DNA sequence: AAATGTTTCAACCGCGTGTAG
DNA sequence: TCTACACGCGGTTGAAACATT
């Protein structure tokens, strides 16, 4: 038994919107302000449409501040960089691009930018890649099965490599489209010492891995079940002030998360093993992009959901 | 000019999440 | 605490537009 449909699909109009329908919806929103209940809107506005369809039409097309097409190089870089970092979190990516919608960004990536990114070259940076599996809103599972390490993950090269050091304040900027816990990765890091007390962050949107959650983990010197939400960065910081510098996936981690973890877990920054460990964690935090690049690069299929093998 | 293949993008679908009752 | 409902999201589809042969 499936979920009840949000509306009677047989009795509502579907397909492309007519100009009259657009005008009805536009004038309704104009006169009533923020829509409180999209399901009830069609009836009130005199539209024979599903409420979800109305919402989509408004958000993706009729909103006055929408931009269509004409993506700039800078926007390309933002999309590439964020996609590399957080994967297909289109609503988050779109929230960093004023006037762009998640649907638009998604279409743009799938039809143009992905090819462009691929064409600019793929190179390997990471020695080890461990897909962490289910991430984000759907089906996050800490009980996922560890799998053997796949081939090294290629990375797209969308922009000149640079480092990024967002200020702590930037971590508190608002992103309303995602909840804390998104882009989260559960992992165990058995070689690191138990983490010290963690710094306080402005809010929960960006929080470092949590301290050991089990007595056992603390007792044997490991820590477990780290969760991180990384769905928020300021665009100005992303584009590096002048807009001519951009973080890449690895650099994003090395530039921001790396030092954070080094500070928190006293990893020697100069040691190659520490670098390796950071790379492993990076791959765990931001797995989606690698997975896609990977598939596109005709490598073996990425592993199914699972904890980072070397971290378990 | 016609046929065929490819690309684009608006719209749909179904599921996870948040929340009010 | 549970349930029902609406919202929001990401993946997918399909028709139209465009390019190529």
Helix share of residues? 25-40%
User: How many strands?
Assistant: 6
Tally the helices: what do you get?
11
Overall mean pLDDT stands at 55
Give a brief rundown of this model:
Keywords: DNA-binding, Nucleus, Repeat, Transcription, Transcription regulation. With 312 residues, this protein is mainly alpha-helical.
Q: Helices, strands, pairings?
A:
Layout: H1 19-32, H2 41-45, H3 51-62, H4 73-86, H5 90-95, H6 102-119, E1 122-124, E2 154-156, E3 161-162, E4 188-189, H7 215-219, E5 223-224, H8 235-238, E6 246-247, H9 249-265, H10 272-285, H11 287-296
Parallel strand pairs: 3-6
Antiparallel strand pairs: 1-2, 4-5
This protein binds a DNA duplex (21 and 21 nucleotides) through residues 2-4, 6, 14-17, 37-39, 50-53, 55-57, 59-61, 68, 88-91, 102-104, 106-108, 110-112, 136-139, 177-179.
Keywords: DNA-binding, Nucleus, Repeat, Transcription, Transcription regulation
Domain Myb-like: 9-62, 63-113
Domain HTH myb-type: 9-66, 72-117
What features would you describe in this structure?
With 312 residues, this protein is mainly alpha-helical. It has two domains: 19-62; 122-311, no CATH class. The chain contains eleven helices and six strands. The protein has a two-stranded antiparallel sheet. A two-stranded parallel sheet has the order 3-6. Strands 4-5 form a two-stranded antiparallel sheet. The protein is elongated and about 50 Å long. The chain starts with 18 loop residues before the first helix and ends in a 16-residue tail after the last helix. It binds a DNA duplex (21 and 21 nucleotides) through helix 3 and helix 6.
